Amino acid sequence: MSVNVGIDAIRFYTSNYFIDLRTLAAVRGVDPDKYMLGIGQDKMAIPPPDEDIVTMGASAAKSIIDRDGKDRIELLLFATESGIDQSKAGGVFAHGMLGLPARCRTVELKEACYGGTAALQLACAAVARNPSIRALVIATDVARYELASPGEPTQGCGAVAMLVTANPRVLAIEPEHGLFTSDVMDFWRPNYRDQALVDGKYSTRVYLQALQECWKQYREQSGRGYGDIHRFCYHLPFTRMAEKAHERLAKDSGIDLTDEQLDQQVGPSLAYNRITGNSYAASLYVGLACLLDTESEDLAGKRIGLFSYGSGCVGEYFSGLVQPGYRERLFTHEHRAMLENRTELSYRQYEDIYNLPFPTDGGTHTFSRYRTGPYRLAGVKEHKRLYETVS
Ligand code: CAA
Question: What is the CATH number of the domain that holds 232?
Fold first, then answer.
């Protein structure tokens, strides 16, 4: 008999700093409605110099570990496309910071924004094979484009940690899925660059094509259709993309979607992304956390459809069933407090942080202390990152 596996806990973390897109629009000489309505973003989260993918990922995971313990965590999958080392997995730093058991398989995964879903599915497979273990998935990224480029207002950062177990108490992941891989150059970042390169309009078309292919397969494999799914979560490069994706999916399903239905079916997953921006591998799961936190209707027993897209490209459509009592497992209060207590940056502060070079000379460098979560990047010495716990 197959085991019920999926998400037993989900925690989201983002930087304590943001820039309002009205501020950016004024400097760029752009109508703010282009950002707020055209791409559907209000603010973007900016990581200070002492925050990186590891501190964000570990900060997201810490609340789960503090509450649910670390025993039986035998797998840590760390998904990112903003890797800090070509060799050592970011997850190994996080493993140390979280004090996880040494008996653990830890690895970093990459396929653009799809990495988080690859990690989640691999974690589910590992737990299905041995239901006595638990797996920790960390998806964490910093989205960074060139200043004054079309991608700039879609920047952001964030991390999501998920505990994957048998008999999960938040979302049981169903086994059916639709998959799509195609070798395309819509978005990429060569090793020698710290900003992504993107063929923006093309990327939105490939996203929609991947969705159509994945959805078709998902429907064939599961025998389910549009009406079997209660709420929809999409990969969120910016919130308007999710709305466009849902309009396409509804149209392909022969549904004449009203604005009210769009708002009801997709809207509850968008609020966090709208004020944090893209967090690549974490982004779909920021949307899921947002839906579970903010939807006023009790979702227990309801099916959530999820579409994951990673440029390059890989897509997957899959679904999950919300578990009874899920609300007691959420970190809604912590998420809300974190988002309400952020510090707004001026344009000058944003650009100064953006342009701050990361030391590469092998010397000893100490980073100024900004407001972070429980962990920070204190500095770098002999090419080694030095992390510390914030007391
Ligand atoms: N009021 C209201 N709307 C306005 C407006 C105004 N004053 N001015 C413009 N708009 C609208 C436009 O009509 C347009 O709407 P539609 O898309 O519905 O036509 C929208 O604002 C965007 O404006 P532009 O068409 O001028 O596009 P742009 O040059 O600003 O670029 C973008 C948009 C291509 C998405 C760009 O932001 C970009 O390159 N982003 C990064 C790439 C990306 O996120 N791709 C998504 C798919 S790939 C993926 O999902 C992986 C990933 O995470 C990166």
Answer: 3.40.47.10
Strand residues in 200-313 grouped as ranges (E) = 231-234, 303-310
Phi and psi torsions of 185, nearest 5°: -110, 75
How far, CA to CA in Å, does 62 sit from each of 9, 13, 35, 51, 373? 12, 10, 33, 15, 10
Q: Which helix (H) or strand (E) holds 290?
A: helix 283-294
Instruction: With beta carbons less than 8 A apart as the criterion, state whether 113 and 235 touch.
Output: yes
Q: Find the 121 Cα to ligand 1 centroid distance in Å.
A: 30
DSSP 384: E
Per-residue DSSP letter, 272: H
Residue whose CA lies nearest to ligand 1 atom number 23: 38
Considering its fold, how many domains does the chain have in total?
1
- pLDDT, residue 3, reads 86
Res. 1: pLDDT tops 70: no
Which pair of tokens denotes residue 154?
Answer: 């879609």
What's the burial of 287, exposed, middle or buried (CB within 10 Å: 0-12/13-18/19+)?
A: buried
Residue 85, SS3 per DSSP: coil
13 token code pair:
């973390």
Radius of gyration of the chain (CA): 20
Pocket test for ligand 1, best of 81, 154, 189 (most atoms within 8 A of CB): 154
Backbone angles phi, psi at 121, to 5 degrees: -70, -40
Smallest CA-to-CA distance from 81 within 273, 307, 280 is with: 280
Which residue segment(s) compose the domain that 159 sits in?
Answer: 5-389
Q: How far apart are CA 24 and CA 41, in angstroms?
A: 12
Which three-class secondary structure state does DSSP give residue 49?
coil
Tell me if residue 234 falls in helix, strand or coil.
strand
- Which residue's CA is the nearest one to ligand 1's atom 9? 34
Q: Which residues of 74-93 are buried (b: 16+ CB within 10 A; e: fewer)?
A: bbbbbbbbbbbeeeebbbbb
pLDDT of 305-355, one tens digit each? 999 999 999 999 999 999 999 999 999 999 999 999 999 999 999 999 999
Distance from the alpha carbon of residue 146 to the mean position of ligand 1, in angstroms: 15
E strands, 46-110, are: 73-79, 105-109
End-to-end CA distance of the chain: 47
pLDDT digits (tens, 9 = 90+) for 52-99: 999 999 999 999 999 999 999 999 999 999 999 999 999 999 999 999
